[in-house]
Amino acid sequence: MTRTTSGLLLERCYAYADAPLIALEAAPEGLRVAAVNPAYERFFGRDAAAVTGIRWDRALGHAGWLEGVEAALHAGEVVERTGVLDAAGKARWCRLVACPSVDTGGRVVQAVLTVHDVDDRVAAEQAREFLASHDVVSGLLRPGQVKDNLAAQLVRAVTQCHRLFVCYIDIDKFGAFNQTDGFEAGDRLLQQVADRLVAAGRDASLVSRIAGDEFIVGGVDATGDLDMLEVGQQLLDELSQPIAFGAFELRLGASIGIACFPDTAASVDDLLQQSALAARTAKERGGNRVHVFNTQQRTLLRDRMDMGVHLRGAVARGELELAYQPVVSVAKREITGMEALVRWRSPQLGLVTPDRFIPLAEDLGLIPDIGQWVLVQACQQARRWLDCGVGDFVLSVNVSGLQMRGQQVIEDVSRALDGARLPARYLELELTEKAIMGDPDHVASLMRELRKIGVSLSMDDFGIGHSSLGLMQRFPVNRLKIDRSFVSAVPNDVGAARICRAILGLAHEFGCTVVAEGVETPLQLGFLERNGCEYIQGHYLGEPVSADGMLARLRNPSLRTADQGNRGDAGSILLVDDEQNVLRALARLLRRDGYAIHTAGTFQQAFDILGTTEVDVVVSDHRMPEGRGTEFLGKVKETHPRTIRMILSGYADIGAVTEAINGGAVYRFLTKPWVDDELRKVIKEAMARARRDQVQRGATGPVADA
């Protein structure tokens, strides 16, 4: 190539001054650089003089993807290639366009190379491809990608007899961190969690963020010897290591569930579903722990899935029905209302109780439809009862937390009342404590709107959630319902007795009445009555019945009062002693003063009497086969605080008796043998004190323990 020809070529090349250009000329040893434009010098950081005369590929840095370009040019082809070049010490994606110029004999005599900078374009395309397969927050593969990778590993596990496991990780209390530190800080924390999950040599192709603060980590157990609890604990230990976050260190806890093929899972879907359920079990047990899915849970899960298949469409197929359990006034022993309880009569599964299918309906998102059906049917039934001539009742209907989302419940209640022509005063809505406390501001607003309609409201399952006393005053609740888990343990369980009395006191302070659920025995009824509970609900005074059965009860609402004890005109005394001759002698002595006398040879007999009979004074021996009288009376103080309690014994444990008296468990200590007149005098004083306390309670409500 002559200088003139080269100059003419460069003049043409300068028209593309923004792109690096290289003019080539043919030589015996191959194409060499004849000239470059200033854009080449700027882009590659090399002077024109330094590259003039060298082989063309050296001017581009000997990139491997340039192989074959010269041969194509000699064949008269226009060549386009894309690859990475060294641009002034920085690797950049470039697109090379090479155009040959041939003579009349078809030989290549010169060529022009154009280099286009496409680094930004390639980076954008790579970013799009990355985001299509990776989570933007954590940088981990998306769940779909990991699921495909797990499927491939499952095939290998089958052919090579390996185990495949999935750990489902739910970060504990991450929502609170988001609320206090913001979502940006939460994203940074999730990035650090992701880094830890892959930093210990785990296969990153099996690690993903499922959603929010939940991750999965897959793994292969080639030997079959791994202990899954140890695998999960190692993960938990890694996550619990301190994380530097600004000026403080943060320690994370997590609920981790693990499922394993072939132990319990038969597919990738099984692994994901079972590990998620195991993680939920770990969280329900307090969090910051590991739970491995087991065969028993597999059976329960299979039953749950089968039930879910049949439950869908149960409302449309007319498979639901209502039963009604009476709510009884403790003071009047009369039925004052009822709770509507939904039952599912499945053609395949038979009669299914709500404790089995309601939680499943909530998980499947079916509960709003079921709740609306119950509301409509209950209101229509209440209207039919009114048309039959009974009208002194309140019908309670449960409302789930899902129904309280948005404003739909207001419209549903209004439509149900209007459709049944039912006055709102006959309807009470029961909201669980969990549902109320989940979004207190929104729920309080809905409750105020419902009260404007005219329905009454109760808080169900009170005591098992996380009620805030500061929030309680904002909720326009008419009644609290004590959860059956507490009622079933009274009166003998001191803790349950304290909780029940505390709930009763709290409710009365807020101007609410109380319904105790799950009353099964006269002992429980007696305890609740003595502690001021207004209403009870349970099998002892009424099992759930059909609508017709409930109508019959409403027409005759009074119940028998045989369970009420006779206190006698002068009061009631319980004598506790393991010696029958002592009990007979005391009974003869004290009966002359007009007291109703009850005797017990054991502490258990004494508690049975206290549970069914209103007792004013308890007199117990100190040395009993079951233990010390001071311990027994200390328990009586907790479960029946309105009694006056005394020790009558020939054995004096001065320390124990003094402690009991100082602690308020024992009013007086009397010795055997007794002097009749002195004993009668002390009993008379104790009875007078009991009567004064009763008068005070009648005027001001429950008082402190004697």
From TrEMBL:
A Pfam family of this chain: GGDEF
What are the record keywords, sorted? Phosphoprotein
Record-linked SUPFAM superfamilies: CheY-like, EAL domain-like, Nucleotide cyclase, PYP-like sensor domain (PAS domain)
Identify the domain of life: Bacteria
Where do the Response regulatory domain residues begin and end? 572-687
On whether Heme is a keyword of this UniProt record, the answer is no
Keyword Phosphoprotein listed? The answer is: yes
Q: Which InterPro entries match?
A: Biofilm_reg_signaling (IPR052155), CheY-like_superfamily (IPR011006), EAL_dom (IPR001633), EAL_sf (IPR035919), GGDEF_dom (IPR000160), Nucleotide_cyclase (IPR029787), PAS-like_dom_sf (IPR035965), PAS_4 (IPR013656)
Which of the residues bear the PTM 4-aspartylphosphate? D621
Tell me which residues make up the EAL domain.
304-558
Q: Where is the GGDEF domain?
A: 162-295
Q: What is this protein called?
A: EAL domain-containing protein
